[in-house]
C-alpha cells in the first residue's frame, strides 16, 4: 500500500516537473574537424562541425540555457558566433574573434554558455574567423516556451533549409590569394541547398539535389537561412506562393510572395502549403546583384516532391529565377516585411534618439606595395578601415588594457561630399581600431549611407548584441530635413541583418540595453575582410543586473 502511493506520488511529480521547470539546459558538443563531404564532387576536405555540412541544428526553447563545447581539431584558430542571439550581459560568448574573445587554438576547447531570453524563431550559428563560416555553420531553432503557440496556424511539419556557397578550392586559399594579390576573391563554384549543389552544377557526379517531400494538403514551415559568404539570394518555388511569418527570429505580419530575397546572415520562415496538383516542383536559388560586378550567377535547384506522385523529370514543373539585377522584385519583397506588432509581440521602437549617427559605408583604395596594382580595395565606415586588434576588444575594455583601441570613431563623416555620386578624387581611407561609446540604455539611430566610391552596392549590415528597427530607407543621399518625417515608428521590421539599398540609405534604431563590446559589419565576408566593420562599446548601467558578467574561466587567451 505504502509503496504504491509512493510510486503514485513519484509519477505525479515526474509529470508535473517538466511543466514547472520548463527552462532547460541544452548540451551540445561541436567537434571542428576536416571532412571529405561525399555529396560534393571535390577531394578538398571542408572544415565542418561533427563532419556535417551544413552542421547540426541547435534546438532549444525560449528561456533555455545552451552549453556548447567547441573542440578544435583543425589547424586553424576557431570561434563560433551565435548570430542574432542577444547575449544579454554574456558578450564573452558572442564569438567574433578578437572582438569578444581570443580564438580557440588547435587542440583546445571552449564552452559557449548563453541563455535564450525573449527570443524565439530561426537564427544561425557560424564560425567568426577567417572564411571558415563557408562550411562551419548551421541552424538555431528556438521554439516558443512550452504551451505557447505560434501566432500563425500550426504547420504540419518543419524543415530547415540552409543556403550556402561552395568553392572547389580550399576557401582559405581563395581569400589568401586575394589578399596577397590585392584582387577580388574568386567567386564560388556553386550555391548549395542543405549542402547539395543540385543537378545543374558543372559536376557530372552530382545527380541529386535536395528534395523536400510533402503530402497533399499539408503545410510546411520552411526555416530558410542564408549562410552564403558573399551573395544575396532569391528563392522561388514553382507553382507555389510562400507565406512569410518571421524573419531573424521576429514574427512578421503574414504576407504572400512568390519570391524571397535573403541576404547572408538573414533568416526567413515561410509557410508552404502543398495544395497543388501532386507532382514535382522546382525550387530555384539564384543571386541578386544589381550592379555589374561578378557573382556566382549559377542557379542552384532543389525540388518539392508530392509523395506518391511520379518522380520522372518530365513531370517536373519548372520556373524561371528572377534576373540577377531585378531590383524591383527585391524591393517589393523587402517593402512587404512589417513587424507583427501584436499585444504579445509589440514592436518597441525607440521614439526618441539620444545618439544620432550617420555612417557612410562603402569601399576605398589604399596603397599596397606588394599587390599587383600597387593598391588594393578596402572597405570603410565613415572613411575608417577597421584594423583588427591582436587582443580581444572585450577583454581590453573589461580589464582596462590601454593601447588596444580608441573611442573616437566618428559619428558622422569628417568631410561631406555627394555620397551616392562617384565619390571624391582621393579614394584613400584612414585605418584604425576605433570604437564608438554608448551609455547604457541610450537610444541610437544610425543612418547607413551607401557610397558610390568605385561603385554603389547593396551591403547587408549586421549588428551583434541587438536587434534594430529599420525605420526608413531611400535612394540617393539621406536628407535629414525631410526624410525623418517619412519614418515608420509603429511597425517597422526588427532584425539583426539588413541590406542597405544600392546607391541609397537606410535608417535603423535600437536601445543600447546590453553592456559589452558589439561588432557591426557588412555580412559579405569579402567586405568585412576589407575593413567594412566597426564596434560599439556599451557601458555598464548602475543597476545590479546592468553590468557585463565576469568572463568564463576557460575563455581562450591571446
Ligand atoms: C579525404 O580524402 C583524401 C583523398 O581521397 C584522403 O587522402 C584523406 O585521407 C581523406 N580525409 C579524411 C579526413 O577522410
Ligand atoms: C553559465 O553561465 C551562467 C551565468 O550566465 C552561470 O551561472 C553558469 O554557472 C554557467 N554554466 C556553466 C556550465 O559554466
Ligand atoms: C582563382 O581563379 C583563378 C582563375 O580561374 C585560378 O587560376 C586560381 O587558381 C583560383 N584560385 C584559387 C585559390 O582557387
Ligand atoms: C588593376 O589595374 C588594372 C589596369 O589599370 C585595372 O583594369 C583593374 O581594374 C585594377 N584592378 C584592381 C583590383 O584595382
Ligand atoms: C500567388 O499570389 C499571387 C498574388 O496573390 C497570385 O496572383 C498568384 O496566382 C498566386 N500563385 C499561386 C501559384 O498560387
Ligand atoms: C555568369 O558569369 C560568368 C562569369 O562571370 C559570365 O561569363 C557569364 O556570362 C554569366 N552568365 C550570365 C547568364 O549572366
Ligand atoms: C502513398 O502510397 C502509400 C504506399 O505506397 C500508401 O500507403 C498511401 O496511402 C499513399 N498516400 C496517398 C496520399 O495516396
Ligand atoms: C539586367 O540584366 C539584363 C540581362 O543581363 C539586361 O538586359 C538589363 O539591361 C539589365 N537591367 C538593368 C536595369 O541593368
Ligand atoms: C579619408 O581619409 C584619407 C586619409 O586621411 C584622406 O586622405 C581622405 O581625403 C579622406 N576621405 C574622405 C572622403 O574624407
Ligand atoms: C594604417 O595606415 C598607415 C598609414 O597609412 C600604414 O602605415 C599602416 O600600415 C596601416 N595599417 C594597417 C594595419 O593597414
Ligand atoms: C531605459 O529607458 C527607458 C526609457 O527612458 C526606461 O523606460 C527604462 O526604464 C530604462 N531602463 C533601464 C534599465 O534603465
Ligand atoms: C591563433 O591565435 C593566436 C592568438 O591570437 C595567435 O597567436 C596564433 O598565431 C594563431 N594561430 C594560427 C594558426 O593562426
Ligand atoms: Cu558589404
Describe the structure.
The chain is mainly β and 558 residues long. The protein has three domains: 2-143, Cupredoxins -  blue copper proteins (Immunoglobulin-like), CATH 2.60.40; 157-335, Immunoglobulin-like (Sandwich), CATH 2.60.40.420; 355-546, Sandwich (Immunoglobulin-like). The protein has five helices and 33 strands. The chain has helices at 2-20, 171-181, 327-335, 393-398, 525-530, and strands at residues 25-35, 46-49, 58-61, 65-72, 80-83, 109-115, 121-127, 137-143, 157-166, 190-193, 211-214, 219-226, 232-237, 242-247, 250-257, 260-262, 267-273, 280-288, 300-306, 316-317, 355-367, 375-381, 384-386, 430-432, 435-438, 443-450, 459-463, 468-475, 494-495, 497-500, 504-511, 516-522, 533-538. The strands form seven sheets. A six-stranded mixed β-sheet has the order 10-9-12-17-14-15, with no helix packed on it. Strand 23 (384-386), helix 4 and strand 24 form a beta-alpha-beta unit. Residues 11-20 have low confidence and may be disordered. It binds 2-acetamido-2-deoxy-beta-D-glucopyranose (12 copies) and copper (II) ion. The site of one 2-acetamido-2-deoxy-beta-D-glucopyranose has 3 residues, from loops. GO terms for molecular function: copper ion binding; hydroquinone:oxygen oxidoreductase activity. It is found in: Secreted, Extracellular space, Apoplast. Its EC number is 1.10.3.2. It is an enzyme of class 1 (oxidoreductase).
Amino acid at each position: 500500500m505504502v509503496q504504491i502511493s509512493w510510486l503514485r506520488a513519484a509519477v505525479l511529480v515526474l509529470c508535473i516537473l517538466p511543466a514547472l521547470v520548463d527552462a532547460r539546459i541544452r548540451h551540445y558538443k561541436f567537434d571542428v574537424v576536416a571532412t571529405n563531404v561525399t555529396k560534393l564532387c571535390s577531394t578538398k576536405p571542408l572544415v565542418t562541425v561533427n563532419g556535417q555540412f551544413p552542421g547540426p541544428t541547435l534546438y532549444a526553447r525560449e528561456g533555455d540555457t545552451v552549453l556548447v563545447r567547441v573542440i578544435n581539431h583543425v589547424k586553424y584558430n576557431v570561434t563560433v558566433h551565435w548570430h542574432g542571439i542577444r547575449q544579454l550581459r554574456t558578450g564573452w560568448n558572442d564569438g567574433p574573434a578578437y572582438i569578444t574573445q581570443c580564438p580557440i587554438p588547435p587542440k583546445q576547447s571552449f564552452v559557449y554558455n548563453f541563455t535564450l531570453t525573449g527570443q524565439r524563431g530561426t537564427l544561425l550559428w557560424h564560425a567568426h574567423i577567417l572564411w571558415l563560416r563557408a562550411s562551419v555553420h548551421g541552424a538555431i531553432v528556438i521554439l516558443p516556451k512550452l504551451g505557447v503557440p505560434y501566432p500563425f496556424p500550426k504547420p504540419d511539419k518543419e524543415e530547415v533549409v540552409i543556403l550556402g556557397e561552395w568553392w572547389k578550392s580550399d576557401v582559405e586559399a581563395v581569400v589568401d590569394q586575394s589578399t596577397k594579390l590585392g584582387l577580388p576573391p574568386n567567386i564560388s563554384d556553386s550555391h548549395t541547398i542543405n549542402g547539395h549543389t543540385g543537378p545543374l552544377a558543372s559536376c557530372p557526379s552530382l545527380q541529386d539535389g535536395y528534395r523536400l517531400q510533402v503530402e497533399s494538403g499539408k503545410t510546411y514551415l520552411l526555416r530558410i537561412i542564408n549562410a552564403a559568404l558573399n551573395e544575396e539570394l532569391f528563392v522561388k518555388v514553382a507553382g507555389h506562393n510562400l507565406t512569410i511569418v518571421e524573419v531573424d527570429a521576429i514574427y512578421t505580419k503574414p504576407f504572400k510572395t512568390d519570391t524571397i530575397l535573403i541576404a547572408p546572415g538573414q533568416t526567413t520562415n515561410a509557410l508552404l502549403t502543398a495544395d497543388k496538383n501532386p507532382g514535382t516542383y522546382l525550387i530555384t536559388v539564384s543571386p541578386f546583384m544589381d550592379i555589374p560586378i561578378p557573382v556566382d550567377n549559377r542557379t542552384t535547384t532543389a525540388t518539392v516532391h508530392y509523395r506518391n506522385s511520379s518522380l520522372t523529370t518530365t513531370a517536373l514543373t519548372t520556373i524561371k529565377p528572377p534576373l540577377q539585377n531585378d531590383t524591383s522584385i527585391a524591393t517589393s519583397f523587402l517593402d512587404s516585411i512589417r513587424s507583427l506588432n501584436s499585444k504579445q509581440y509589440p514592436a518597441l521602437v525607440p521614439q526618441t534618439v539620444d545618439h544620432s549617427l550617420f555612417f557612410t559605408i562603402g569601399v576605398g583604395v589604399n596603397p599596397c606595395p606588394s599587390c599587383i596594382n600597387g593598391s588594393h580595395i578596402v572597405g570603410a565606415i565613415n572613411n575608417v578601415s577597421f584594423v583588427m586588434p591582436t587582443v580581444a576588444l572585450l577583454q581590453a575594455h573589461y580589464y582596462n588594457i590601454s593601447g588596444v583601441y580608441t573611442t573616437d570613431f566618428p559619428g558622422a563623416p569628417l568631410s561631406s561630399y555627394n555620397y551616392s555620386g562617384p565619390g571624391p578624387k582621393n579614394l584613400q581611407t584612414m585605418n584604425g581600431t576605433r570604437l564608438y561609446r554608448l551609455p547604457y540604455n541610450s537610444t541610437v539611430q544610425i543612418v547607413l549611407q551607401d557610397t558610390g566610391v568605385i561603385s554603389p552596392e547593396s551591403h547587408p549590415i549586421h549588428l551583434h548584441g541587438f536587434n534594430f528597427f529599420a525605420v526608413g530607407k531611400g535612394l540617393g543621399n539621406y536628407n535629414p530635413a525631410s526624410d525623418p518625417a517619412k519614418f515608420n515608428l509603429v511597425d517597422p521590421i526588427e532584425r539583426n541583418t539588413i541590406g542597405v539599398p544600392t546607391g541609397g540609405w537606410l535608417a535603423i534604431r535600437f536601445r543600447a540595453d546590453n553592456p559589452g563590446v558589439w561588432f557591426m559589419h557588412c555580412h559579405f565576408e569579402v567586405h568585412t575582410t576589407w575593413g567594412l566593420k566597426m564596434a560599439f562599446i556599451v557601458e555598464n548601467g548602475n543597476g545590479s543586473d546592468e553590468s557585463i558578467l565576469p568572463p568564463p574561466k576557460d575563455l581562450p587567451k591571446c
